[in-house]
Amino acid sequence: MSAELLIIIAIASLLSALLYIILKFFERFQVTNIHGLTANYLTASLFSFFYTFKTNLQLLPHSSSYAGFALGIGLLFICVFYTAAITAQKSGIALTSIAGKMSMVIPILFGYFLYNDQLTMARIAGILLALTAVYLSSSPSNNDSANSSKKNWLFPLLLFIGSGLVDTSIKAGQHYFMTEENQYLYFAFLFGSAGVFGIILTATMYIRSRIKIKLKSIIAGFILGIANFYSLVFLVKALSDDRAESMLIFSISNVLVVLFSAILGLLIFKEKPHKKNLIGLLLAVGAIIILTL
Fold first, then answer.
1. I need a labelling partner for 200 at 20 to 30 A (CA). Which of 10, 24, 121, 132 fits?
2. What are the tens digits of pLDDT across the range 56-86?
3. Alpha-carbon distance 13 to 130, whole Å?
4. What are phi and psi of 25, to 5 degrees?
């Protein structure tokens, strides 16, 4: 794997880790999740459309071949987020993190069966090491794990499947529908459908509970939306590179997200990893070395 491609994957992973950090600030500043999330998707959609405005206007009448797929994936995006929120509430943060990151197994399998990605012994060893690293680095302490084992596993399972399908659908969109020319219009449809669904949920919440939209939710969503847009741009850029297969990109990306999240969590929130997490982070570095050879 070239240094250039690894840098692209690293940037995409760092931006993905920043998404978790921004969402953490949602809690700190009491941002209403659905309002911030909706503003995030609308921001990302508008940014995508105006990023190449003239080109997108020209391509808009000819977008029917991929618009439906992109709109469907956008709905999947916001549904997975809500599943993650419910999982965190019912099963704890640790299980939520593990379920979301271990889902890289799904796009890896799809890459093997649909895109003829090659599974060598070295790659299998690297992927297994990556999965072990993700599990250990996301695991709770012994006391927390005793409590977590009693929690409901239904929502973590749904999150595992949903997160895996999101990554798989991104690769499918890049492989079958996206070109260098229509990429940003595709993003606009994808983020836009999630934003529209968020508007519907926001309106429903207001009608039922009179929950009003606050300015801080819009500002927080705007910041999240810019990071969200660029994280997808760099991920698709990596997936479009012929020098590496999707299974390697998703494996390395997930491991780097774990590493960056741990570093940012320590620097910003003073979250100190325990012994099991440190072992996981060391294994993550080893997995990256094996997968990039």
1. 24
2. 999 999 999 899 999 999 889 888 877 877 7
3. 15
4. -70, -25
